[in-house]
Amino acid sequence: MINLKKRYKNRFTECLYLSLGCLPLSANCAHLTQIKHHPIDKIVQQNTVKKSTLSADKTIKIDQMRIMHIDIDYVYDKDKKQQQKNIQNLIERIQQIQPNTIFLQAFADPDANGSVDQVYFKNRHIPLRENLFPRLVKQIRSKTQVQHIYAWLPLMAWEFPKNYNIVYVSHSKGGKRGYIRVSPFDPQNLKYVSEIYLDFIKSNAVDGVLYHDDITLSDYEDSSKKAQNMYQSWGFNSEQLLKQPKHSKQSQLAQFKTAYLDQFAEGISKILKQQQPNILTARNMYAPVVLNPVSENWFSQSMPSTYQYYDYNAIMAMPYMEEADDHQQFYLDLIQQSKKYDPELNRTIFELQAVNWKNNQKLSTQEIIETIKFLEKNGVKHIGYYPDDFVNEHPQPSRLKSAFLIDD
Fold first, then answer.
1. How do 361-362 and 355-356 pair as beta strands?
2. Burial class of residue 97 (count of CB atoms within 10 Å of its CB; 0-12, 13-18, 19+)
3. pTM
4. Structure confidence at residue 234 (pLDDT)
């Protein structure tokens, strides 16, 4: 997971409301910051498809999603016979567990740094590891009862070939580095990302896109020249703010950055919908953003903005990662805060962890099942888990199937 987490966790435990002069946002905030003349708007216009060529049916949503979140990295193998066995084993596992939704990784992260080196689909910019994504989608659709498949893709965490001379997110002194991400303030980067998504969507029929948890900037980011020029255009002394995380205007700058990132994502979503009008979108959100609005300063993520720009908010409801003392209370707090923006929880996904990354120990299948039942009891409709380990059959498929059954 992102290596900024430890610093954020420590700061999250501090009471910063008064020191930062920031109050929680209203549940029905009608005054979200809007970025006028966002550079993604021009790119969207350039990719507009004539309406007569589109065949839009009514978007069908699943009332209660039960989600397997799958890494293709563990399916891929240089030995193609072994890879075929991996595919067969994965399909059999999906048949056993019977999820109705799959979040399927479409990118390759062999060094596990959270950023994309290669991808599993053909495109013009990022090296192809193997055209494995469409093959797996075809297998899942033809051999399982899965209703929706979402492509799991980053928005910013791309590592381009060196000859591209990309402007990446940079950090002011004192900031810790997170994912390698392209600077969203360079219009050329936006063009490259839009072209990757356009190449993807033209060759892959999916029901949705899950945006990776890389749609984030800390209070020390982005300090690149292009970013600072943008902050200046918003009326901020960027050099001063990037060096003073407790500055009184920090929360205002964070709201602008949040809006800028989410409007970037919205632009990509519009490009996707030009090709596949019924596609749905979800974004991964860090739990501290849900629990404490001040966390927007450290993540450039917010609840009001998320429900404005995405169909679903996929909260990483992971108490071990957040070092929560009382796990049930942690879930209840997430539920309570989510209901302020999504009262019926129709657009909120709880994504559970199947591994404690602190010690690399797998959570027991029993604990995962008990958590699913606890969330259901408290009104959560959409539940998934990550990662799915088909090699070691974790969580145990027969037991998880019973927990994934939905009462009529």
1. antiparallel
2. buried
3. 0.91
4. 96
